[in-house]
Write a structure and sequence with these properties.
The chain contains one helix and six strands. The chain is α+β, with helices and mostly antiparallel strands. It has a domain of 67 residues. Strand 2 and strand 3 form a beta hairpin. The chain is elongated, with a radius of gyration of 39 Å. It starts with 64 loop residues before the first strand and ends with a helix.
């Protein structure tokens, strides 16, 4: 259908070249001994006790927040924000994969987090700290009647298989 166009193979990066170079050794240098230095005596005064200070009024600078958003013509995007008691981020790629996560403080004061992933093949999947976990069922031992019925069933199945 389409003719193949030959493309010459060109190396875009030159191969590294290692060279050995002889370096002459430096001759030792004579360093004169340092002359003694006279330092005048230092007078230190008595320590000063700190005085108590009153309360310091701090200026409220507001909530520190940040946010970002970027997207292109292929439908890819990335956005997110953080600040206060919550944060969120999300990323979508050209192949339809969407991933992200968020966190917030619930009514009990606990930080709840969630991470999600969505794609055209497997759908939406989430892992979160606020999803209830089912209780594991307790093991209930078989009664003697149930155990006897099971043994009769296994025996009947074995006889049936033996006839085949």
């Amino acid at each position: 259908m389409f003719a193949a166009i030959p493309v010459p193979q060109v190396s875009l990066v030159a191969a590294p070249v290692a060279e050995s170079v002889a370096v002459p050794a430096a001759a030792p240098v004579a360093v004169p001994a340092a002359a003694p230095v006279a330092v005048p005596g230092v007078v230190v005064g008595a320590p000063i006790a700190p005085s108590p200070s009153g309360p310091v009024a701090l200026e409220h600078v507001g909530q520190i927040t940040s946010q970002y958003h970027a997207q292109d013509e292929l439908g890819q995007y990335a956005y997110g924000y953080s600040g206060g008691p919550s944060a969120k981020h999300e990323l979508k790629t050209a192949d339809g994969l969407t991933s992200g996560g968020y966190s917030y403080i619930d009514s009990h004061g606990l930080v709840q987090t969630a991470a999600y992933l969505s794609d055209p093949v497997n759908g939406f999947r989430v892992a979160a700290t606020n999803i209830p976990q089912p209780r594991q069922p307790e093991y209930i031992a078989d009664s003697p009647e149930v155990e006897e019925a099971k043994q009769q069933l296994f025996k009947a199945q074995a006889e049936h298989i033996a006839k085949l």
